[in-house]
Amino acid sequence: MSLKDQIQQIAKKNATEIIAVRRHLHANPELSFEEFETAKYISKFLTEIGVPHTTGVAGTGIVALLEGKNPSKKIIALRADMDALPITEANEVDYKSTNIGVMHACGHDVHTSSLLGCAKILSELRTQFEGTVKFIFQPGEEKLPGGASLMIKANALENPRPDAILGQHVMPSMPVGKVGFRQGMYMASCDELYITVKGKGGHAAMPDKLIDPVLIAAHIIVALQQIISRNCDPKTPAVLSFGKVIANGATNIIPNEVKIEGTFRTLDEAWRADAHLRMKKMATAIAEGMGGECDFEIMGGYPFLKNEPLLTARMKSYAEQFLGAENVVDLDLYMAAEDFSYYTQILDACFYRLGTRNESKGITSGVHTTTFDIDESALEIGAGLMAWMAVQELGL
Predict the structure, then answer these.
(1) Architecture of domain 3-188+305-394
(2) Is 30 assigned a catalytic role?
(3) Most buried among 155, 216, 329, 364, by the most CB within 10 A?
(4) Tell me: the pLDDT tens digits for 221-232?
């Protein structure tokens, strides 16, 4: 029996167990950097399958090593994130979140259970592949500064240092059974914007005696869009959006200040830095020109995510071998952000997508929604494919 057949057979044999793992994690979600019970569960699983590991990395992170033949020949890292989101689940399923207000609405339960499934497959085949597999279970992907950056600072990529790293993420717009890849630039950087516009409040019927921060804020929001439309190179995608505006007045009360929160995303670091300066300068000038003040804070987030072209091309070919070329698709640029991007800045990396959609079962909701769920047959694919790509890259 070929190694590919063995991996597929073991993945199928373990499918029920890995679904149970995913359901346990889904029912017991924990917020970013609070994944204490999740880490204990992962550690117990790794111990039971005989994979040595280190706990407490960057807080709740775990790093495991599985050595094949000639363990120093080549090393590949496989990463999964563990944290959930502050969302109240609306699904009525047996594995619904028992932690009210917290939900695995971005598929990190899928990523973790798939990686555990991959570890179990490879632990059975450790005498049949070269090199070493490093499993990284990472906290805090959903919250700045990003668990990936903290894992790197905690030397998760050292002793030994991987030659490459792979990451997998659910894609609810893609049918189950399919996976997607993109070479080169794939996902955007992400910054958080916090603006406080200060004026002089009072009775709304007497605007001549006030400095209206609501009006100033409106001008700032509209004008800042010019940063994108009139300064950004059309070949460089960028997004500026404001999702929160608080003007705590009333129908006849102008408040003293207005708070604005938003996000800025792009795929070019030089333009990102330039845009920061332009936004601050423009907002400050508008506020001062209208008699007010403006405090403009930019919380720098994750960098852009770039897949190493040659590595990604190989991973795509391995996926075609494992699933069939008809089930492997090319991905478009994506303006969402992911802290896996930190790994891509320092290692050859490939971040790919796992289809989880099944319209016939009504599984169509996007990530970060109260009704997100997956077709759980994706778990067998996720675990098996990652194991296959790892051993192919390491060499037989």
Answers:
(1) 3-Layer(aba) Sandwich (3.40)
(2) no
(3) 216
(4) 999 999 988 888
